[in-house]
Design goal:
The chain has 711 residues and is α/β, with parallel strands linked by helices. Helices cover 31% and strands 20% of the residues. Among the domains are: 287-398, no CATH class; 413-546 and 559-640, Class I glutamine amidotransferase (GATase) domain (Rossmann fold, 3-Layer(aba) Sandwich); 654-710, Golgi alpha-mannosidase II (Immunoglobulin-like). The chain has 19 helices and 29 strands. It has a nine-stranded mixed beta sheet, sandwiched between helices. An eight-stranded parallel β-barrel has the order 1-2-3-4-5-6-7-10, surrounded by five helices. Strands 11-23-24-29-26-27 form a six-stranded antiparallel beta sheet, covered by helices on one side. Helix 6 crosses helix 8 (224-252), helix 8 runs antiparallel to helix 14 (420-428) and helix 15 crosses helix 19 (629-640). Residues 441-642 form the Beta-galactosidase trimerisation domain. Keywords: Glycosidase, Hydrolase, Metal-binding, Zinc. It catalyses: Hydrolysis of terminal non-reducing beta-D-galactose residues in beta-D-galactosides.
Length: 711
C-alpha cells in the first residue's frame, strides 16, 4: 500500500493500492494478557485486517537508556497475526520515557512564557532540540531493526499528531535552530534585515547570532516578516524531525509504507517536504469534537470541511483514528454518537477520500488522562452497539471496496487552499478580519448544503478538473499561479479572486504598486483605489476585541442607522450588506461590472467585476464573503458557470459526495440526521450497501447511507 513514486501532490492524488486498511488502534499493554486472544477474535469478527500498535510505549521499548525490550509487543503481534491481522507500528516519540526527561531535562519544550514543560503528559519534548532528535533516531533505529524481518509488520506511523498539544517552542534550542534556519535562508544579515524591515523600530541585526524569537506582546508586536519566518522554521523543524524517522524506516525495509496521523493542523507545511516524504497522509477524525470546539454547521458539516481541507494537502488519505464514542480528557468531553451515527461518520470519511479507516479505539483505558475516551468495547469488556456498528461498517467496506479503490473525489467548485505561506501571513497581521479559511468556509458550506461537489485545491494542482476556482483573500501571490489560472479560464473555467489578494510579497511586506499588484491587475482587469474595514454583517460595530483600550472610547447610546455604517451593494437583483471589508474597484476598459455599491460614499462604484478570458471568465470580488453573499454567488455560478448539484432538491440533512474514476462513479448519499428522509431525484444505479436497484427514489432511515454505483 504505497503511493506511486514521484506522483505530485494534488487533491486528486490516489493511494496506489487495492487494499482498504480497516482496523483499530490497540493498546495490549493496557490489559492483562488473558484478554489478547479474545480481542483478536473479536477484531476479525468486525472485519478488521489491520491493528495499530505502540505509539505511546517508548518506556516499554526502552525501559533503561540503551536497553531495549520488545517482548510484550512480539507476543501481542504473534497472537494478532495468527488471526490474519496486519500490524502498523508507530514510532513512540510523542511520549519520551521518564529516564530521558530526568537525565536530560534540556529536551523539554518551553512555552512562550518561558516555562519548561514537565513529564506526565505527552508531546512535552522539544522536537527542535538536537539531543531529543538524536534519541528519537535511536529508538526508531532499534524498533525498525527489531521488526525488519517480521512479515506481519506492514507499515509505520511516525510519532502521533505532531504539533497538536503545543506547536510552538521558545527554548534556547529553538532559538539556535531559528538562527541557523535564517542564515541558510538569507545567507547575509543584510538580506534578512531587508526581508524583516529592520529599519522599523530599530529591529535590524548585525549578525545572525543576535536574532531573537518573535515573542508576542513583548511588549509590542513583532514585525510580520519576523513572525512569518518563525512559523516557516517551526514547519521546517517538524518536517526534519519526521524525516529523521522516515529515512531510517526506508533504509531498513523499503517495503513498509510510512504515514503520519495529523490531529489539529498547526505549523505543518505539507507541500514543502512533509507530505512528499510519506506514502500517504492520515487524518484523525472526531466530528463531535469539532462540533464542540467550533459549532459551525453541525458535526456533519465540520467533518466534511475538515476532510475536504485535508484532501487538498496531498490527495486521498487514511483515517488512523475515527471517532467511535464519547471522546474526553479532563478539560473537555464530546457528545456521543447516536445509534447509526458512528457508521455514518465512517462512511462520510470514505466518501471524502479515505482509503483506509481505523476506529479509535478498541477499548477505553481504565487509567490515565483518557479514561472516558470510549472505544468499540466498553470498560466491562462487553461488545454493544458500537461494536455492532463496526461490524456493519466492515460489511459495508467489503461491499464497496472493489469499485471504490482507485477513485478520487469529484470537485466542481475548487477553493484555493493548502498554501502554508498564505495561512500564516494572515495571522501575522490580521487587521481583525476573517482568515482565508474562514472566508472559504462560507462558500464551502453553501456548496455542501446544496449538494454541489466542492473541495480545496492548490493553484498548482490540475485545475482543468474544475468548473470554478475561488481564491479567498490570499495576501501573497506567487510566481506561476497567474499563468495556470489564465490557462484554466481560457479553456472555459470560471475564476473568482477575493478582495485583498496579492497585496503583500513573500516577505510579508505591503506591495508598492496599486493592488492587487501588476500580475493580478493584468489578469483581473482591475486596480484597487482604496480599501477599508467593516463590521461583520450581524454586528453594529467592530467587535469588542478591536476596540481601543478602556478609557479611550465609551459608547453612550445605541448606534443610529447612520453610525452603523452599513455598506450595501446590488448583485443578482438582490440588495446585500457587505461585511468585513470594502474595496473601491476601478475596472479596465475590457472589464464588465456585475455589481456596484449602492449607498454612502461608495455609491455607484464597482464591487464585483468580470473579465472574459478565452472561453472562460474571471471575477473579482471587492469585498469578503458573508452568509448573505455566498448563496447568491453560488446562484450566479449555477446560472453562468455550468455548476449543478449532484442531485436536485437536496433535503437539509442529506450529504452527497461522489467518488469517481474514468470508468465508474459512486454517489454517496448519507443521512446526517436522526429522522427518516425520502429522496425522489436520485439518478439510476445500484446501492452497493443493500444490493437494491435505485430508480430515482430512495428512503433513508436516521443516519442510514447508500452508495449508488451509477449507470
Amino acid at each position: 500500500m504505497k503511493n506511486t513514486a514521484n506522483m505530485p501532490l494534488s487533491a486528486w492524488r490516489p493511494i496506489a493500492t487495492d487494499t482498504f486498511l480497516y482496523g483499530v488502534p490497540h493498546y495490549p499493554e493496557h490489559v492483562d494478557e488473558s484478554y489478547w486472544a479474545r480481542d483478536a477474535q473479536r477484531m476479525v469478527q468486525c472485519g478488521f485486517n489491520v491493528v495499530r500498535l505502540g505509539e505511546f510505549a517508548w518506556h516499554l521499548f526502552e525501559p533503561v537508556e540503551g536497553v531495549y525490550d520488545f517482548d510484550l509487543f512480539d507476543r501481542a503481534i504473534e497472537i494478532l497475526a495468527a488471526h490474519g491481522l496486519g500490524i502498523i507500528m508507530c514510532t513512540p516519540t510523542a511520549t519520551p520515557p521518564r529516564w530521558l526527561t530526568e537525565k536530560y531535562p534540556q529536551v523539554l519544550r518551553v512555552d512562550s512564557d518561558g516555562r519548561r514543560m514537565h513529564h506526565g503528559s505527552r508531546q512535552h519534548a522539544d522536537t527542535t532540540h538536537p539531543l531529543f532528535r538524536a534519541f528519537s533516531r535511536l529508538i526508531t533505529e532499534a524498533m525498525a531493526t527489531h521488526f525488519r524481518d517480521n512479515p506481519h509488520v506492514i507499515g509505520w506511523q511516525t510519532d502521533n499528531e505532531l504539533n497538536t498539544s503545543m506547536p510552538t517552542c521558545w527554548s534556547e534550542a529553538a532559538e539556535s535552530g531559528f538562527r541557523s534556519f535564517c542564515e541558510r535562508k538569507y545567507t547575509t544579515i543584510e538580506a534578512l534585515n531587508a526581508a524583516w524591515g529592520g529599519n522599523f523600530w530599530a529591529t535590524a541585526y548585525r549578525s545572525f547570532d543576535q536574532i531573537v524569537l518573535p515573542h508576542s506582546g513583548a511588549p509590542a508586536p513583532c514585525g510580520p516578516g519576523h513572525v512569518q519566518d518563525y512559523h516557516r522554521f517551526l514547519a521546517y523543524a517538524t518536517m526534519q524531525f519526521q524525516r529523521d524517522q522516515v529515512d531510517i524506516l526506508r533504509r531498513v525495509n523499503d517495503d513498509w509504507f510510512v504515514f503520519h496521523n495529523i490531529g489539529l493542523i498547526a505549523d505543518v507545511d505539507f507541500r514543502n517536504g512533509f507530505a512528499d516524504d510519506l506514502d500517504f497522509l492520515g487524518y484523525d477524525v472526531y466530528p463531535l469534537l469539532h462540533e464542540e470546539k467550533w459549532r459551525i454547521g453541525g458535526p456533519a458539516y465540520q467533518q466534511a470541511n475538515f476532510l475536504d481541507r485535508c484532501r487538498g494537502f496531498a490527495g486521498n488519505f487514511i483515517v488512523p483514528e475515527q471517532q467511535s464514542g464519547l471522546g474526553s480528557q479532563p478539560m473537555f468531553s464530546t457528545l456521543v454518537p447516536e445509534p447509526g451515527e458512528m457508521r455514518r461518520m465512517a462512511l462520510s470519511s470514505i466518501a471524502r477520500g479515505a482509503d483506509g479507516l481505523m476506529f479509535f479505539r478498541w477499548r477505553p483505558a481504565h487509567f490515565g488522562a483518557e479514561i472516558y475516551w470510549m472505544g468499540l468495547l466498553d470498560h466491562d469488556d462487553i461488545p454493544r452497539r458500537r461494536f455492532d456498528e463496526a461490524c456493519q461498517v466492515g460489511r459495508d467496506i467489503a461491499a464497496i471496496r472493489e469499485p471504490l479503490m482507485g477513485t478520487r473525489v469529484r470537485i466542481d467548485v475548487g477553493i484555493a487552499a493548502a498554501d502554508f505561506d498564505n495561512e500564516i501571513a494572515h495571522t501575522t497581521y490580521p487587521l481583525g478580519l476573517p482568515s482565508p479559511q474562514d472566508d472559504a468556509t462560507l462558500l464551502h458550506r453553501i456548496c455542501f448544503e446544496r449538494g454541489v461537489a466542492t473541495g480545496f485545491v492548490h493553484p498548482e494542482d490540475e485545475l482543468a478538473r474544475l468548473k470554478v476556482f475561488y481564491v479567498p483573500h490570499w495576501l501573497i501571490w506567487k510566481a506561476g499561479w497567474s499563468e495556470a489560472i489564465r490557462r484554466f479560464a481560457e479553456a472555459g473555467g470560471t475564476v473568482i479572486i477575493g478582495a485583498r489578494s496579492g497585496t503583500r510579497d513573500v516577505h510579508n511586506h505591503v506591495i508598492r504598486q496599486p493592488a492587487p499588484g501588476p500580475e493580478l491587475s493584468e489578469l483581473t482587469g482591475v486596480t484597487i483605489e482604496e480599501f477599508g474595514r467593516l463590521a461583520a454583517p450581524d454586528q453594529d460595530a467592530l467587535t469588542s476585541r478591536d476596540m481601543p483600550p478602556a478609557g479611550h472610547f465609551v459608547p453612550t447610546e445605541r448606534p443610529t442607522e447612520s453610525s452603523r455604517r452599513r455598506y450595501r451593494f446590488n448583485f443578482m437583483g438582490r440588495e446585500l450588506t457587505a461585511g468585513h471589508c470594502y474595496e473601491i474597484v476601478e475596472p479596465a476598459a475590457d472589464t464588465e461590472v456585475l455589481a456596484r455599491w449602492s449607498n454612502r460614499f461608495l455609491a455607484g462604484r464597482a464591487v464585483i467585476t468580470r473579465r472574459r478570458l478565452g472561453r472562460g471568465q474571471l471575477l473579482y470580488l471587492g469585498t469578503y464573503l458573508s452568509d448573505e453573499l455566498a448563496p447568491v454567488l453560488l446562484d450566479w455560478l449555477v446560472e453562468n458557470a455550468a455548476v449543478a448539484p449532484l442531485i436536485d432538491d437536496l433535503p437539509a440533512g442529506i450529504d452527497v459526495t461522489m467518488r469517481e474514476a474514468d470508468d465508474r462513479r459512486l454517489l454517496f448519499v448519507m443521512n446526517t440526521e436522526h429522522r427518516e428522509y425520502r429522496l425522489d431525484t436520485l439518478p439510476q444505479g445500484t446501492d452497493l450497501l443493500s444490493g437494491n436497484r435505485v430508480d430515482g427514489t430512495l428512503t433513508l432511515a436516521g443516519y442510514d447511507c447508500a452508495v449508488i454505483r451509477l449507470e
